[in-house]
Amino acid sequence: MTDVTITPLTLVGAADAAVCEGDFCVIPDHNEQKVVNRKLDDNNI
Amino acid sequence: MSDAIKVDIWSDVQCPWCYIGKRKFEAGAEASGIPVEVEYHSFELSPDTPVDFEGNTVDYLSERKGMPKAQVEQMLERVTGIAKSVGLDYDFDHVHQTNTVISHELIHFAKSKGRQLEMKERLLKAYFIDGEHVGRIPDLVALAVELGFDEAEVTEALESHRFLADVKADVALAQEYGIQGVPFFVIDGKYGVSGAQEADTFANVLAQVQSEKEAAE
C-alpha cells in the first residue's frame, strides 16, 4: 500500500466478530454456541 | 469484469482469529467470484513478548492474565474447535509463544520478492499447526529456504533488520486507520471489516464494491 491516502472507513459486518486485541483474543458467545452445536451434531443429538 | 479489488489485511502471526479469518475471507472471496488483490500488513499484538518465552500458550496466558490454567485450556479448546470448523488443526500444546517482529520482517522480505502470501500462510501454519518457532532467525530462515528462498539472502535481510522499518510503517498505518484489533480488512480503501467474520460478509462487501465500481464506469 504505497502512498496511501487515509480516508475514513465505513465499517461493515457483525460488530461482535472474533478479534485479538493486545495479547488477548475475545471469543464471542455466538462462536461458542456454534461449537456446542457442532459437538451435538457430532454426537447425533 | 472490473479489475481486482484491493484488500489490505492487518494481521499477526500469533493471532488465532487471523488464521481463521483468513480462511473465512478466502472462502468468501471464492464464493463471490470477484478477483481480489490481497496485501498483508504487520500488526504486533504483543511486542513485549520475549523471543524465547519458556512455555506454551496456556503458560503464557495464565502468567500474563492471571487466569487459572483450566480456564485458559477451556478457552483454547473452544478456539481449536472453531479452527477445526474451517479446516485448521490448531495444536496449542506445541505452540512456541514468542515475539513475532522478525517473522513480520520475513513477510516483508517475501513481499519484496512478490511472494508474500505464501510466506504468510507458511508462518501461520508453522505457529498454530506445526509447532515450529517463528521468533528466531535460524528457524525463520529454515522456513524461508523450505519455500525456495535463498538462504544467504534471507539471513542477511533478517540479521540486518532492513525490513523493520516496513513493519513499523504498517503498525503506524493501522494506528492512522484506528485499528485496535486483528484481523482487520480494508476493502478497496474504504470499507473496514473487523474480525473473523463469516464468509458471506466478505462476499457481500466484495459484491458491493464491485457494483459501485461498475456503476462508476
Q: How would you portray this structure in words?
A:
The complex is a heterodimer of chains A (45) and B (217). With 45 residues, chain A is of the alpha+beta class. Helix content of chain A is 31%, strand content 16%. A two-stranded antiparallel sheet of chain A has the order 2-3. In chain A, β2 and β3 form a beta hairpin. Chain A starts with 9 loop residues before the first strand and ends with a helix. Residues 31-40 of chain A have low confidence and may be disordered. Chain B has 217 residues and is α+β, with helices and mostly antiparallel strands. Chain B has 9 helices and 4 strands, in the order βαβαααααααββα. Chain B has helices spanning 16-32, 57-65, 69-85, 101-112, 116-128, 137-146, 151-160, 164-177, 199-216; strands at residues 5-11, 36-42, 184-187, 191-194. Chain B has a 4-stranded mixed beta sheet with strand order 2-1-3-4, sandwiched between helices. In chain B, α1 (16-32) links the parallel β1 (5-11) and β2. The longest helix of chain B has 18 residues, at 199-216. Chain B starts with a strand and ends with a helix. β1 of chain A pairs parallel with β4 (191-194) of chain B, so a sheet runs across the interface.
Walk me through the topology:
The complex is a heterodimer of chains A (45) and B (217).
Chain A: E1 10-12, E2 20-21, E3 24-25, H1 29-42
Antiparallel strand pairs in A: 2-3
Chain B: E1 5-11, H1 16-32, E2 36-42, H2 57-65, H3 69-85, H4 101-112, H5 116-128, H6 137-146, H7 151-160, H8 164-177, E3 184-187, E4 191-194, H9 199-216
Parallel strand pairs in B: 1-2
Antiparallel strand pairs in B: 1-3, 3-4
Helix pairs in contact in B: 1-9, 2-3, 4-5, 6-7
